[in-house]
Structures are given as C-alpha cells and as structure tokens.
Give the backbone structure.
Amino acid sequence: MNTPPTRILPLGRFEPPSICRRPLVGARISAGFPSPADDFIDRKLDLNELLIHHPSATFFVRVAGSSMSGAGIQSGDILVVDRSLEPADNKIIIAILNGELTVKRIRRRNAKLFLLPENPAFQPIEITPDIQFEVWGIVTSVIHSL
C-alpha cells in the first residue's frame, strides 16, 4: 500500500489563557447501565493543569497522515508536545527527519536507533549517519474529536 507519510503541521506555542475549570465527575463512568453523574461531581478540573506541565516548552501540532493510527493518533488530531522532556526508548516523539517534522515511536534495538510507525502499511526508519535527525519534542497527549 502506498500511503503518504504522517506529517506534522505546527499550530504554535501554548499560551496560558485565563483559568477555565470544568466539573470533574469523581466516579468512574460505566459503559453499561447509566449513572446519575451529577451526584458524583468531585471538583473543578482545568485542562491546562492536566495537559500542560511545562508551559514555556509546550506546543501544539496537528497530525496529517495515518502512520500512527495504531497508537490512537489519527489524521487531524492535535498533539500536545513538550520540548523540555528528554527522549526515551518507546516514547512517541516529534522528530525532524531530513528537514521535515514527523511523529513516530523511538526505539533502540541492538545499538541501532529506529523511528517506528504504528501502522503496518509503513516501514520502520533506521536512523543512519546519512539521515538528518533531531528529536524536536515528546508527545504527552493526543486531542481528537469522536
């Protein structure tokens, strides 16, 4: 199958807005019988507190492509990317690969470094000396609509 690679479209740096707290239901939500959730509202939740841990190093990017669909990252999703975190084996990263941004899982195998897609239609990319490669940031969250 010849499908285009997953690309990243930068959206910009996180700019903290005024606090926007919303109710957080304290009970787990059943996938079976309904529950009266209003009886379980625990506290207010600010999504900035939940998703943004290093505001000055956090950026949002939009995904274009399907190479990471197996990791729950779909085309059109917005990724929360923290540039202050260090890359580690098996993390999902934003990489600069030959001048283009891409999202992949980073893996080290037998002293070799690979960028792995999460879609069987795509091949792993071995990072060799002839490839321009830089870790741009670590994906910490995925935001997508249902």
Summary: The beta strands are 7-13, 21-25, 41-46, 58-64, 78-82, 92-97, 100-109, 112-116, 125-127, 133-143.
